[in-house]
């Protein structure tokens, strides 16, 4: 999901595996099922006036569908390919905790935020806080998430 050429990367993984070797990879599932991260990307995009990350660029949701990940692994020549969903909610004590963790996850996002004015950061935080409001609980935030886990074998 984060490489420019997922097909080539999967082929290289297969190449370096010994015969009978297995690989397991994990990617984020669909954006609409991962509001814990989608809220941040949407807030940044709204502030910048663009889709973030830009279409066609590597990003957390580049392989966000079961069929996409299956196609990459199968296309690389793997056998016994499977893709399963794993619930991966974000659970934390507060919005501020979510902000610290989420902004630190990806280097490009961190760098982009560092370049923003304090007013822009406030607008991004406000947008994200509003998007995450439905997931507030008495104990903090409990935001849904799902990962896709692909497994395959080299013949």
Description:
There is one protein chain. With 155 residues, the chain is an alpha+beta fold. The chain has one domain (6-153): Vaccinia Virus protein VP39 (Rossmann fold). 45% of the residues lie in helices and 21% in strands. It has 6 helices and 6 strands. It has helices spanning 6-16, 35-48, 66-75, 95-105, 107-114, 118-132, and strands at residues 22-28, 79-87, 90-92, 136-137, 140-143, 146-153. The strands form 2 sheets. It has a 3-stranded antiparallel sheet with strand order 1-6-2, covered by helices on one side. A 3-stranded antiparallel sheet has the order 3-5-4, covered by helices on one side. β4 and β5 (140-143) form a beta hairpin. The chain is elongated, with a radius of gyration of 18 Å. The two termini are 24 Å apart. The mean pLDDT is 94.
Describe the structure concisely.
This protein is an alpha+beta fold. It has helices at 6-16, 35-48, 66-75, 95-105, 107-114, 118-132, and strands at 22-28, 79-87, 90-92, 136-137, 140-143, 146-153.
């Amino acid at each position: 999901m984060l490489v420019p050429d997922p097909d080539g990367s999967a082929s290289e993984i297969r190449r370096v595996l010994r015969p009978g070797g297995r690989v397991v990879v994990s990617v984020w599932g669909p954006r609409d099922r991962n509001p814990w991260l989608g809220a941040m990307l949407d807030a940044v995009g709204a502030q910048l006036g663009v889709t973030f990350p830009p279409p066609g660029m590597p990003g957390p949701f580049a392989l966000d569908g079961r069929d996409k990940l299956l196609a990459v692994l199968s296309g690389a020549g793997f056998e016994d390919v499977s893709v399963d969903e794993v619930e991966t909610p974000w659970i934390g004590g507060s919005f501020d905790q979510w902000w610290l963790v989420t902004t630190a996850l990806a280097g490009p996002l961190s760098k982009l935020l560092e370049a923003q004015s304090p007013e822009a950061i406030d607008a991004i935080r406000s947008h994200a806080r509003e998007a995450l409001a439905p997931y507030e609980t008495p104990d903090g935030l409990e935001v849904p998430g799902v990962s896709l886990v692909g497994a395959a074998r080299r013949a």
